[in-house]
Amino acid sequence: MKKFKHILLKTLDVAALSVFEPIVRLCYGEDPRAQLRKIGKFILIPIVAFILFLGVWHVTASGIETKFGKMPTPGVTWEQTKVMVGQVFENRRSEKAFYVEQKTKAQEHETKAAQYAAAAELPKNASQKEAFLAESNAQAELAVNARSATFAGTPTIIYRVVHSLKTVFLGFMLATLIALPIGILCGLNPVFMAAASPIIQIFKPVSPVAWVPIAMILVGALYSGSSMQPAMLSSAIVVAMCSLWPTLTNTALGVASIDKDHLNVAKVLRLGWWTRLFKIVIPSSLPLIFAGLRISLGVGWMVLIAAELLVQNPGLGQFVWDRFQDNSAAAFGQIFVAIFIIGIIGFFLDRTMIILQRSVSFDAPAGA
Amino acid sequence: MSQFGNSYVELDRLVKAYPNPRGEATRVVDGFSTKIAEGEFVSVIGHSGCGKSTVLTMLAGLNDVTSGNIILAGKEVSGAGPDRAVVFQSPCLLPWMSAFDNVMLGVKRCYPKATRLERKQLVEYFLSIVGLGDAMHKYPKELSGGMQQRVGIARAIALRPKMLLLDEPFGKLDSLTRMDLQETVLNLLNEHRITTMMITHDVDEAIFMSDRVVMMTNGPRAKVGQVLDIPFERPRNRVDVLGDEMYYDFRGCLIDFLEGQDRRKHGEPDASMPEPKPVTKPETVQDLMLVQSPAEVSAV
Ligand SMILES: Nc1ncnc2c1ncn2[C@@H]1O[C@H](COP(=O)(O)OP(=O)(O)OP(=O)(O)O)[C@@H](O)[C@H]1O
Ligand SMILES: [Mg+2]
Predict the structure, then answer these.
(1) What local confidence, expressed as pLDDT, does residue B2 receive?
(2) Nearest residue on chain A to B84, alpha-carbon basis
(3) How do strand B212-216 and strand B41-45 relate by DSSP bridges?
(4) Which fold has domain A157-359?
(5) pTM for the full predicted model
(6) Which of A300, B110, B150, B166 is deepest in the core (most CB within 10 A)?
């Protein structure tokens, strides 16, 4: 029991959710007054503040008339959330129905194919036999087609979230692959740093929107594969161009500021370049590298929505644009829902990175 | 004695100059010379800031020599290397590795031909002789300061160095842990005779552990002031050493020297004089002391 409490508290701590610590402690009856006071201050007050925010939103929104109708209030947004969830289930139902239908169709074709094949076996004249065989093959092909048909409904919000996440991770990976080696070289070698510095300084402040046309043109010219939609690749490139800087600068800083004592260890042992890199340099700069990665992912997620909106990558960004084009009050409400979804996903991405960051920091006590 | 006689290690007129705030080179250490026999334990004592660490890091190859020579086992030393293992005041363990892996890093480097099992056994051996048999897989942050320093010592010994360099290795420890570790190191050295140079502030530590104490004059332009031989038998035992009547003579001699340096520092009449003030020598140690004159040094 005690042990479980310890694990629970530790988990909250590692997940950077120590706000909820007093609740756990209260459940175990540990100094209830102090815990209640903490709960009041750090859980109840934030909840009250959020309710206040909803109130202000409601009042403000009710007074604004737009060409799409009234500006969505919290109530309307909630209604639209339910509508969107409904669509997800509706879509899932029709998807299931579609596949059931395809399966029966395929089975029908398969039985027919078998019948024709059997008929062809009977002794008939050669031309008739051939006709039966051809028919059998045609039916078999139809069956295969029916089985391999995929459902093409309108993309649901779930599909869009998944697609956006895939795109942002692709971009983030690209950024990391570029930023880590360059950052390490910059940190190791002052001359390299001096050489790279002007380039970094110039490209770092460029707005994501400016990269969009370049990415689209380049992808159009150079990418002919089919494993990925060009729009997804373009968005990922824009994400990468904007999110590689925090990782790069943090990595360079981390590598350049290694503890002199640790470098002395490497000198005394006369470690080779690679051993030094992997045993000393990288481990010692991991905390800063991860701090950089965390900022990068945050930037990437922000940039992604703008990129998707412009490139028409079927993720959340395109959803916002789509709803904007719809010109209805309901669609306006759904844009608000999208805002919340984007925010909440961003929050979870950040939390994940915090947990990773903590798990590599060697000076703070690690989890368990 | 080995083929190198009394000069297994030879520091010859070492000079270290650092630029001062106005950009002029000031000689922090100026003409530090001494010889160390193979297997000998030499302590360097002197006031804070006089340049002890500077001498040691130059010997370790971690600090460039402005002028002068360092010869170890007949060869001129250049750059750092595993033949000169260093233990600093702070343990300098790599915090992302367990005690075992910290020692393993050196073992891998110095026994490239050993098998995986042999290496593992070596690491376990070195950690157990510093008394860490039970805490091998702990990370530095889970170890006390004393235990971390033990890992540092194990890591140094594991390199099978020609020379062990200790810079106030017990400086940050409480006095009980400190005594414990002094004995650990002495026992280690009884077993693996390694030529050692230790820097310390502690007069008792210097006498208990070393064969010879080198006293440094105050900086800037610090060099060897006096040298005191400590002829106690090894293996040493603290009670016997403390009970020996010569102990207090040695102690008095060292303290006299340090106090003399203090007076110099505080601008008393002879402040401008480069020579250390002659110290009153107790009868019994008189013939053990070698006051090095500049003539002697340059004759080396
Ligand atoms: N990198 C440096 N640049 C300029 N001056 C330095 C540098 N390193 C050391 N010094 C100076 O050299 C002198 C000797 O320093 P050192 O660290 O060798 O002293 P120390 O005898 O080891 O002192 P302590 O007993 O306090 O460790 C000091 O006055 C210090 O200010
Ligand atoms: Mg020092």
Answers:
(1) 56
(2) A268
(3) parallel
(4) MetI-like fold (1.10.3720)
(5) 0.82
(6) A300
